[in-house]
Amino acid sequence: MQGQNWFVGKDGKYQVSPPTKIWNLLRDNYRLYRFLTELEDLLNNVEDEISCLPEIQMLVRRLIVNSYWVQSQYLEPCPKTGTSVLLLYEELGFPFTVQTVTLAPGTKSNIHNHGTWGVVAVLKGQEKHTFWRQTFHPQLPAQIEKTGELILFPGDIICFTSDAIHSVEALANEVTVTFNLYGETDPQRRFEYDLYTHTTKNY
Q1: What's the DSSP call for residue 57?
Q2: Where are the beta strands (DSSP E) in 18-161?
Q3: How do residues 180-194 score in pLDDT, each as one tens digit?
């Protein structure tokens, strides 16, 4: 599944990374457990995980290219919320979140960050990301301003730093499915932003 590689950081500006040649990623019998092992090996004893985001993005693309199983693992969206989350792997002491997220057409998220780095790959549908940044107004420390929008299509993969702020909307007439990978979340740094009251709360 070919697509663009994107990156967005604290300033809310997104940039495209050089594309990865698919034939360099093809592997026989490449399964989720191999991806998890390679991810853990990559990040062992690394102090600055953000610097590894390009390599993590490459690992995610390798997984998506080689694993039909991962592409097929998702739930139908909840009729009430318009979204569903399927956890693909969980183990005590394993510091990463690996899941697929399904959004019904038109479903929108709140404005938030993740309190950790993240990598999101679109498997199906279309997803619009709106990016924001804090203005650091002296009287309104939680005030944010919009910095741009980006529509992601199947095969596109985007990386976020822990302080990147965004909101998400499913655009397609079909469900939107993404593969989501996150580092170890710091609950004290994960916020939902209110655009009108200029306040935050833990998300």
Answers
A1: H
A2: 83-89, 97-103, 111-112, 118-124, 127-134, 144-152, 157-160
A3: 999 998 888 899 999
- Summarised one tens digit per residue, pLDDT across range 27-52 is 999 999 999 999 999 999 888 888 89
pTM: 0.94
- Domain spans, the chain: 5-202
26 three-class SS = coil
Q: Is 188 helix (H, G, I), strand (E, B) or coil?
A: helix
**How does strand 5-8 pair with strand 157-160?**
parallel
- Does domain 5-202 fall under CATH 1.10.600.10? My reply is no
Buried b (16+ CB within 10 A) or exposed e, 36-64: bebbeeebeeeeebeebbeebbbbbbbbb
Percentage helix, strand, coil for the chain under 3-state DSSP, each rounded to 5: 20, 35, 45
Tokens of 79: 């009729």
